[in-house]
Amino acid sequence: MPQVTQLGSGGLNKDVSPMLLPPNIFTDVKNVRFRNQSVETITGEILGRTLPVAADFGIHWRRPDQGYNIFAKNGYIYRVDSAGNVSNMLSSNDAQYNNSDWQGTAFNGGFAIIINNGKSTPLYCLYGDPTATNSFQPLPNWNYAAGLTITAKVVRALNYSLVAANLTINDAGIITYAPGTIRISAQAATGNVPSVWEPGLTTDTADEFELSSTAPVLDMAELRGSMFVYSQDSISMVSIGNQTIVKPYSKTHGILNTDCVVEFDGNHFVVDNNDIYVHNGSGKIDSVADSRIKDYFFSNLNKAAVDKVHVVRDKYYKEIWVVYPKGTSSVCNEALIFNYVNATWTIRQLTNVTYSFIGPSNLNNSFQYAKDSVYMTTNSTTTLVTNDSYQMYNGTTLSNFTSYIEKLKLNSGDIKGSSLITSLYTVFDHTPNGGSINIYVKGQNNYNDTVTFDSTDMFVFQPDNPKSQGYKVDPRVNGRIMNFKIESNSYWRLPLYDFDAKPVDRR
């Protein structure tokens, strides 16, 4: 077999039979990243700011004057500046904020930030406003008539208007559920928020209409100047101008939950209840999970906690993280990460994550907008932020973590006869400083045998030890099929590998 290269273009495949996978695609991985034509240990995280509450929502607000990270838990909302100063923006025990599932959007070029819990009037902060610059206030004229109370599942920004969807309307005690209804505000002046929501009062964009969806609207996201409206089983496209134009976009795809869509490079990446897909707004929809990690994701997702699933985009690494609760966990304990340049998947461990969002890196108590980081809230007052270190939070403190790649059921070169696998050559161009890498190798003949690596299969690769072979291991195992695993608790990078295999017992 020739040298195996292009490891950065292979990635993980959990769904296809391992025997059918090319040698640069792995059957299991943890805490690695596929990039620069190599596979390497993924970067870790550091402890962020300690909060007054165990927040379960966050959003970065880049105001015209400075930036803040905003964290929320029910009726308690705090902002944290780059130096770590914490300010209270809302403090309420009102029942309308109990068990809030917040979502948010920046508006009007960063002048305003809007957050909404689906149970109360959406809240806003506005830079320069005498009242709302430092505290959250209800959106003005949201309930535009006496005795009228309206809530919305989701509120998003589109140009100079706000769009709300999936309404509950209480008109003087008469409650109407309108899961397919869309409200569009009038356009806001520069540096302000919309003040007109009632349709028909102006020739502006204020409007209200019903979609033909058979399921409730769960989220919306802008793409190419239009708002794409996602229900569980369909997508609609809304364009606003002199008049509002609504078009059906798909009757076969939808979305799993709020915060399960993100834009990248003129496309939407979406998790729905059957697949993970991308589209560019022109009608073509492509799965990026089918025959790769779709079966793995849906079989491991805690179906009782789908409201915790969300996606975030790390622009620096050109990745989209699908953050979700695995197994029986009620908090997010794993991220499936899609590299949208290489179209590869990998897995990263998480600990007790309740929400994550993108914000700027913080260097010397200053937000650096040149590079994004992933901020994470946990089920404690501790927050986390990704950086270039190689430690991760274990629920109590930061610690070293294990990263590995595993390749099972690799054809050793002759599927018809047993081979002697004499040497495995692993070319690491970055290795642990003074540390070691464990390499497990095991041969097998019966394809259906379950492979379990143990200490008898392990070889310690010591690249910095001149008395060891710092370029190969010599397993000398027999089998029609080869299995190997490479793991370490320090940083490593592997651009290629090769192995020697020759026929044995051939008659």
Main sheet specs: 7 strands, antiparallel
Structural class, from helix and strand content? mainly beta
> Biggest sheet: strands side by side, in what order?
4-30-29-28-27-26-25
CATH architecture of the domain at 7-31 and 403-503: Sandwich
Give a short summary of the structure:
The chain has about 500 residues and is mostly beta strands.
Task: Describe the model.
This protein is mainly beta and 507 residues long. It has a domain at 7-31 and 403-503: Jelly Rolls (Sandwich). The chain is 1% helix and 48% strand. The strands form 10 sheets. It has a 7-stranded antiparallel sheet, with no helix packed on it. Strands 1-33-39-35-36 form a 5-stranded antiparallel sheet, with no helix packed on it. A 4-stranded antiparallel sheet has the order 5-6-7-8, with no helix packed on it. A hairpin with a 6-residue loop joins β10 and β11. The radius of gyration is 26 Å and the shape is elongated. The two termini are 22 Å apart.
Summarize the SSE layout with pairings.
Elements: E1 28-30, E2 32-35, E3 38-41, E4 45-47, E5 57-62, E6 67-73, E7 76-80, E8 86-91, E9 103-107, E10 112-116, E11 123-126, E12 137-138, E13 148-158, E14 161-171, E15 174-184, E16 207-210, E17 217-223, E18 226-231, E19 235-239, E20 245-250, E21 261-264, E22 267-271, E23 276-279, E24 285-287, H1 294-300, E25 310-314, E26 319-324, E27 332-339, E28 344-362, E29 367-378, E30 383-386, E31 392-393, E32 398-399, E33 403-411, E34 419-427, E35 437-444, E36 458-461, E37 472-473, E38 477-479, E39 481-488, E40 493-494, E41 496-503
Antiparallel strand pairs: 1-33, 2-3, 3-40, 4-30, 5-6, 6-7, 7-8, 9-10, 10-11, 11-12, 13-14, 14-15, 15-16, 17-18, 18-19, 19-20, 21-22, 22-23, 23-24, 25-26, 26-27, 27-28, 28-29, 29-30, 31-32, 33-39, 34-37, 34-38, 34-41, 35-36, 35-39
